[in-house]
Specification:
131 residues
């Protein structure tokens, strides 16, 4: 299963012709096992312009497996990712990205992204990047 981050979905939904958007579309067309996290669903829906558009996109996203934050362990794990990176001189800008990464690590699911924070997290953890 490959988790597709908000940073890629934004380009796909806005029809931006980026390499990661093209990769995502190719994976969709090939029927690859794609997933999102609950936090990614929130990020995507909050950025949409109208309730109508949000409802349409929500229906689309519900076709994918939605990996969820579970109990306090995922939150503790996200904090540990941040601390580990900081201890190694790596700055993670987004707590939300650490939450997403903690779910990906627990599920052993690589992430397709266009967000440098995930590269930073991967450099100091077991997060797998899908290329």
């Amino acid at each position: 299963m490959i988790v597709v981050d908000t940073s890629v979905w934004i380009d796909v939904l806005n029809e931006h012709d980026t390499l990661k958007a093209q990769r995502c579309i190719g994976l969709l067309e090939d029927g690859a096992p794609l997933a999102v996290t609950d936090v990614i669903v929130t990020e995507i829906l909050q950025g949409l312009r109208s309730d109508r558009e949000a409802s349409r996109v929500e229906g689309y996203l519900r076709h994918f497996p939605i990996l969820r934050l579970e109990a306090v362990d995922d939150f503790v794990s996200a904090a540990a990712l941040c601390r580990r990176a900081r201890a190694r001189g790596v700055t993670i800008r987004s707590t939300v990205d650490c939450l997403i990464a903690s779910v990906c690590i627990r599920q052993n699911a690589p992430i397709l992204h266009s967000d440098d924070d995930f590269e930073r997290i991967a450099s100091t953890s077991k997060l797998q990047i899908f290329v």
